[in-house]
Amino acid sequence: MSTHDWRSKAANDSLKRLLPRLETSYKKQIAAVPQISWTGFKARLHREWKRLFCCLHELYGWQFDFYYTLEQVLDMLIRYRLGRPLALKKLDNKREADPSWYISEEMVGIVLYVDLFSNNLAGLQDHIPYFESLGVTYLHLMPLFSSPHGENDGGYAVSDYRAVNPDLGTMADLSRLATALHEQGISLALDFVFNHTSDEHEWARKAKALDPEYMDYFFTFTDRDQVDQYQEHLRDIFPTIRKGNFTWNENMQRWVWTTFNSYQWDLNYSNPAVFRAMAEEMLFLANEGVDVLRLDAVAFIWKRPGTDCENQPEAHTIIRAFNAIAQIVAPTVIFKSEAIVHPDEIIKYIRPDECQLSYNPLQMSLVWEALATREVKLLVSAMQNRERLPQGCTWVNYLRCHDDIGWTFDDTDARNLGIDPKGHRRFLNDFYTGKFPGSFARGLPFQFNPDNGDLRISGTLSSLAGLESALEEKDDDMIEQAVRRINMLRSIMVSIGGIPLLYAGDEYGKLNDYTYLTDPTKISDSRWVHRSRTHWRAAEDLADKDTLEWRFFYEMAKLCNLRKQLPALRDGGLTVVDTGNPHLFGYIRKNRDQRLLIVVNFSEFDQVMHREKVAETGLTQTAREIFTQKPQPADQDLLFNGYRYMWIDFSETITPIDEQWLKTIGSSG
Ligand code: GLC
Ligand code: GLC
Asked: Which residues surround ligand 2 with Cβ inside 6 Å?
């Protein structure tokens, strides 16, 4: 019998043996839920069990208590399905009937810190109209769970996955918010910080007290040689804060594996109890009404001696097992991968049975690269060579987020274009920290590593794109140019394929905030320069149409609302076109009967796309430019002023744009 057959049979047998037993013990609870909901669950269970079984077998099949693991997992699936609120079960049905809801052109995302945006969860609910006027349908809240006072990596050190940080509210506030968002057609995304817990999590506390059961939840070592053997192959993530990936714990007299900060303890997924415990935390969040889970730091979750302990095959197996569990219990829930690694590795996490969504850090960083160089060749080559995502998966496109920008492009791609990767990264870092002569950017260095020269960049969209320096110079032309640059970048994010994800503040042009330098818990982490409070005064100024804030907000809302009217912007597929001009980036988006040619000028100077190049794209009859709503004859050059962008509809039949949405802007603050 082949392994495949053997596993199928074993999967079937195990379910046949375990399920009736568990159904008997949950008889009363099962009788209390609608019959149809239970049969639906069983259908999904039968559909997904084999895949879950195979993942678990791969990870834990060799352990003597594997059958116990299976039984515990099945028991958990049943408990959480029985406990899933009715409204969410209804949502499950809806989403099952429309499984690719997140691929739609309707999707527009925003991500924010609750405390910085609205003080707390209750306050956030009052701002739902603000999201609506931007057209937001996806709200990602930065980590909001209980975490250590003082330093906590912006909440990425979780002490309790079931308790909201009391400053922000309660778990009840969170599920109330989820319901209110769902009512407005907005889905809720939260982080699933599953690579590590904080050192104050109950499991870590028990481990510190030398409870052997919980010491097995983490990686601890008495032997420094063993630590050194691992360390030799590992990368330093926060080298300016600390060298190495291990932290000495006095109480345990042991080294603890801490990839990120010393208070973030990596979980040991080779222990099936850890897998089960974290799967439960995930289902708990799912039943609170979360639609999208952002899988934090996915690359790091499996360790293998002699490797860099990133992107190991088992990391994928674990995510697939979580995916099967979510599909069975809470099919509403999808995953977003946060793998800020080499492009060839990023792509491996994006599959319908793993993460349906993924950040697109390559595109993000290359857009910034093109903005600095005013040349689009590296961006073009990366987009041309990028693999098409499997059906049912899409990118999350962003310009800025709470983290730094790292220059993740492939070295060979760069060399093929005559670019020296190391020198180019140095140039980009000089440019974005404002050191390069003539640079407009005001970024800050993040995590300089003197051993290899690596450096990343912090800063807000507006400060990196030149608004801060222009305002300081009080130079109207420079200000105007910065505004155009920012709008141009945002037009790409909205149109290039995938879900656009705004970083809150970028809708009204927020600048860097240097007050973090006065806070001892933040001073050593420059990412806080782009993590600051929402200026509600500025947002209220949206009523005043003369402000820069208003112009940014208006343009953003316009882009988002236009996006929703353009089915061509659905999904992630795009064809990069040859514009014949090194400064012009062009692509075609196609879907249903709609075809759009999008061209963007990355330089501050006037540029032309010649008519022959335009014709090569297939634009051979009169088309219509969407922003101006003017006809675009086929046999004409396309003319661009500095940083101009055009979206040209060249479908057989051109659908008119509805301007109704304009009325909703500015009506809320
Ligand atoms: C992710 C987060 C980052 C955090 C790290 C550790 O990469 O985006 O902010 O520092 O994980 O949890
Ligand atoms: C590293 C990690 C990434 C994290 C970032 C935080 O790049 O790979 O996951 O977001 O550090 O700065």
From this structure: 237, 297, 338, 340, 403-404, 406
The span from the CA of 446 to the CA of 455, in Å, is: 6
Between the CA of 507 and the centroid of ligand 2 the distance, in Å, is 24
Using the mean position of ligand 1's atoms as its centre, give its distance from the Cα of residue 488 in Å: 28
- Please give the Cα distance from 562 to 134 (Å, whole number): 11
Q: Is 571 a residue of the active site? A: no
Q: E strand or H helix at 164, and its extent?
A: strand 160-164
User: Does residue 516 register a pLDDT over 70?
Assistant: yes
Q: Which residues pair with 395 in a beta bridge?
A: 358
- Residue 258: phi and psi, rounded to 5, are -135, 90
pLDDT of 387 above 90:
no
pLDDT of residue 663: 58
pLDDT band at 100 (very low <50, low <70, confident <90, very high): confident
Count other Cβ atoms within 10 Å, centred on residue 287.
18
Atom number of ligand 1 nearest to Cα 527: 9
Respond yes or no: is residue 546 known to be catalytic.
no
From CA 624, how far away is CA 650, in angstroms rounded? 7
Q: Which position has the token pair 């407005």?
A: 184
Choose the catalytic residue: 106, 338, 354, 369: 338
Average pLDDT, the chain: 94
Task: With H, G, I as helix, E, B as strand and everything else as coil, classify residue 156.
Answer: coil
CA distance 310 to 299: 5
What are the two backbone dihedrals, phi and then psi, of residue 41, each rounded to the nearest 5 degrees? Answer: -60, -45
CA angle 386, 392, 397 (to 5 degrees): 50
| pLDDT score recorded for residue 305 | 95
Q: How far apart are CA 491 and CA 487, in angstroms?
A: 6
Q: Which residues pair with 336 in a beta bridge?
A: 294, 357
For residue 669, the model assigns a pLDDT of: 32
Q: Are 531 and 116 in contact, with CB atoms under 8 Å apart?
A: yes
The reported pLDDT for the residue numbered 450 is: 85
What's the number of CA atoms in the CB half-sphere (13 Å) around residue 118? 20
> Whole-prediction pTM value?
0.94
